[in-house]
């Protein structure tokens, strides 16, 4: 896995690249504007060029923008939906300008309209956005949810429904957040539990659809549906869950972005410590485990022998 973190851009876009490298990260996720804003100030061409140059010069291996928090592509309210769709178009354009690999976004919430209606609205929102950017190069990644309230995308079936309805595999994908998975009830801290998770991914959205991870430990209990991040190894997931994900060759070229708590007084020191922890889990295993797809297929074949 290509390890990195979410870095702030208060010091400038190129500075975010340098901050990432200073903590030993290879994958960079940013907000392109305040996540509490519907639309941000335009990105100057010179700033975009400087960011691209910094990514290239610093040899950052993966880049992503995380969409802001206000947009709800599944809203049943016409005014909110229109504003959300506009915000998504704006963010997608900013991602293209900066040349990042991915735009990561939350599918939204149905706010009482029902899961089916909410998913249909999300899919229609994405179809419209794709029609307006047919030549886009940035892949849009739906992020799985923890399942709190009426949020959409906490099950793989829901994610698969949106992906199938949009039918644009070359433009869409999924980001899996480890905290959200755990909060939604997936216990991947054992070989058996991790195997069940891999089976579900393969049988619903497909392993190739997973284009990024958010690597976050969980403050709250398994199945709590609470999105509460913790530093790696200090939460309920613990080292065992991360060891299995990190050493699965299926994700060898997939970026994993930290969104764990940081301390304003010490900057990104806690990120740096989390990266050390993650890399120690890689080092402890010796040979990486086989690819998830091949390993699970073998297990299934063996189970059919009488």
Description:
It is a single chain. Helix 1 runs parallel beside helix 2, helix 4 packs across helix 5 and helix 8 crosses helix 9 (269-284). This protein has helices at 13-22, 45-57, 78-98, 115-132, 156-166, 178-183, 191-204, 238-246, 269-284, 292-303; strands spanning 2-6, 27-30, 62-66, 102-105, 139-143, 172-177, 210-215, 217-218, 229-230, 255-258. The radius of gyration is 19 Å and the shape is globular. The two termini are 37 Å apart. It is α/β, with parallel strands linked by helices and 306 residues long. It contains 10 helices and 10 strands. Mean pLDDT is 93; it is low at 293-306. An 8-stranded parallel beta barrel has the order 1-2-3-4-5-6-7-10. A two-stranded antiparallel ribbon has the order 8-9. The chain has a single domain, classed as TIM Barrel, CATH 3.20.20.
Strand content: 5-15%
Overall shape: it is globular
Q: Fill in the CATH topology.
A: TIM Barrel
What would CATH call the class? Alpha Beta
Helices and strands, with pairings:
Blueprint: E1 2-6, H1 13-22, E2 27-30, H2 45-57, E3 62-66, H3 78-98, E4 102-105, H4 115-132, E5 139-143, H5 156-166, E6 172-177, H6 178-183, H7 191-204, E7 210-215, E8 217-218, E9 229-230, H8 238-246, E10 255-258, H9 269-284, H10 292-303
Parallel strand pairs: 1-2, 1-10, 2-3, 3-4, 4-5, 5-6, 6-7, 7-10
Antiparallel strand pairs: 8-9
Helix pairs in contact: 1-2, 4-5, 8-9
């Amino acid at each position: 896995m290509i390890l990195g973190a979410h870095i702030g851009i208060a010091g400038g876009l190129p500075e975010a690249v340098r901050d990432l490298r200073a903590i030993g990260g290879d994958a960079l996720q940013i907000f392109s504007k305040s996540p509490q804003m519907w639309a941000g100030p335009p990105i100057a061409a010179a700033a975009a060029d400087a960011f691209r140059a910094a990514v290239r010069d610093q040899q950052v291996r993966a880049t992503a923008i995380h969409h802001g928090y206000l947009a709800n592509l599944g809203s049943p309210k016409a005014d909110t939906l229109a504003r959300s769709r506009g915000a998504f178009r704006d963010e997608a354009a900013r991602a293209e300008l900066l040349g990042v690999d991915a735009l990561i976004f939350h599918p939204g919430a149905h706010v009482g309209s029902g899961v089916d209606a909410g998913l249909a609205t999300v899919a229609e929102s994405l179809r419209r956005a794709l029609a307006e950017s047919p030549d886009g190069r940035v892949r849009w990644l739906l992020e799985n949810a923890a399942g709190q309230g009426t949020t959409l995308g906490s099950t793989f079936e829901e994610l698969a429904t949106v992906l199938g309805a949009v039918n644009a595999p070359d433009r869409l994908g999924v980001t899996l957040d480890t905290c959200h998975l755990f909060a939604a009830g997936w216990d991947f801290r054992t070989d058996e539990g991790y195997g069940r998770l891999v089976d579900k991914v393969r049988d619903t959205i497909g392993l190739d659809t997973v284009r990024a991870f958010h690597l976050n430990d969980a403050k709250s209990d398994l199945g709590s549906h609470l999105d509460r991040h913790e530093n790696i190894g200090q939460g309920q997931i613990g080292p065992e869950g991360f060891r299995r994900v990190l050493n699965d060759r299926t994700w060898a070229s997939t970026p994993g972005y930290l969104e764990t708590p940081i301390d304003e007084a010490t900057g990104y020191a806690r990120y740096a410590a989390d990266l050390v922890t993650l890399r120690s889990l890689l080092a402890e295993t010796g040979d990486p485990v086989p690819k998830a797809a091949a390993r699970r297929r073998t297990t299934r074949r063996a189970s059919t022998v009488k």
